[in-house]
Amino acid sequence: MKRQQIINGVIALVIGVLIFVTPFIFIGLTAVKSAAEASQLGLSWPSEWLFWDNLVAVIQARNYMLLLAYFNSTVITVGAISLLVISAAMIGYVIQRRPSKWNGFIYALILAGLMIPPAVVPTIWLLKELHLFKTLHGMILIQVAYGLSFSVLLFRSFIASIPRDLDEAAIIDGAKPWQVFFKVILPLLKPVTVTVILVQSVTIFNDFTNPLYYLPGKDNVTVQLTLYNFQSQFSSQMNLLFMNILLVTIPPLIMFIFFNKQIVKGMTAGAVKG
Amino acid sequence: MATVRLKNIHKEFNGVKILKGIDLDVNDGEFCVFVGPSGCGKSTLLRIISGLEDATSGTIEIGEKDVTKSDPIDRGIAMVFQSYALYPHLTVRDNIGFGLSLAKRPKSEIKERVNAAAEMLQLESLLDRKPKDLSGGQRQRVAIGRAIVREPEVFLFDEPLSNLDAALRSKMRIELTELHATLNATMIYVTHDQIEAMTMADKIVVLNAGHIEQVGTPMELYHHPQTPFVAGFIGSPKMNLFEGAIAKEHNADLYGIRPEHLTLSPKEGKWKGVVKHIEQLGADAIVHIHVESLGMLVARADGDFSITAGSTIYATPQEGKEHLF
Fold first, then answer.
1. Domain residue limits at A222
2. Which of A42, B144, B154, B310 reaches 20 to 30 Å from B246, CA-CA?
């Protein structure tokens, strides 16, 4: 490697660290400071480390609201992801394998789902009519609807890379259409399924605005909304707010760190063909 | 085992006629090869027999039963695909037994039949491997095993050897012929490779542009081609075909002579020409000769025949070996 290349690499690394790592250091440091120190919002070293005290305070705040929020967010994420993966894989399979005159219209709908921003008030009105407003399963359906277009496109392009001969071999072997899908195609969708699970679960788990609109109520709190609650309650206690940020950031962060390669693999698979 | 009877099969895709009225009987236990150039409709015809594709019109009978509207599974057929189409996530054992497990056969029976098929194809040591861990020839054998295990009445092969290298292809040709002899099953085999057709078939069906040009045994097609297309398609190198004076001399539109039915001599003969190119194959040499009155003429000579490009040579057709159309 040439000297100039090394210098360029080091400069890129320093910029990268400044942009991506500094915020995490700031969160980490503020989260362990005392209330007074944290209110200065600086990158200074804490005079005393209050990690455990702040952690307990955040968890106990508002009658263990954070734990309830974790439970709610987990239910929403798991429920939405399960529905999303199964329905997106099936839709992707059908539109890829069975071209019809409706395909153009279906694609238009999928693209509309990606491009047109959701209208909140009519959605709330619809949810109310369906008695789904302020319910976890209503929230799950919202998340499925919002994530479906992207997931269908990922599945569709991946399925395009699976030879049609496999479907036909299964049909010759006596498989019914649902058996072709569940016994032959679905097991082969593992890479893209993992990608969809990771990307969408992080999105849904981190979602702040949608639960804010569609899931009001103290019992319905999700992890990101606990930040909102803290901000009003402890407006001067930035240390607790940042400890809370730290706690709700960790699960998605871990997923990204461990499954980073898998995400890229699933995103690019099927990109060449189809 | 069963006969396959096709009656007036037509197929259209978006108004384009792919098959234009195919009538064909494949007898019980026969090894029938569909051969023809790319796009002649041979694979489409096989897919129509399998039930993967519907005929626009016409009927298909397998074993005296009209199966035109039946699902593939109810036709008593098994198919081997060009790409092998093995299920990548299943082991060889599960690939072979997939059809039986779908049919909800008892586990002991599946095991027994899979083992029997594996033994026949020498796959016993590979049963627990995944398809990605197998060579091309092994994958092809697994695909054949998957067909055998279902004990179908008719085997369908869609260019099964075209992904293999030349040496393996020749080996698999022999294996398939032996398999046919062992099972004595009706087999329909699609290929564009006339060597496969000639070496394996009991009956060859030559297809061209959606219709049957000729049906016959390999030697019938070789010795008595009924159309110029068959004459040109069967045999390698292909038959020399000439219009014009030479054809008129024999009161025909087209005069044909196979390269192996030309005798070459440096001194005398019927046609004098100049050697343009020589393809040396070892045992044989394919000689391309330019003859003033005919154009390019291809002859097969003995590998030891001493000749160089640019030299003058005489070619003489062997008596009674000419083909007239």
1. 63-268
2. B310
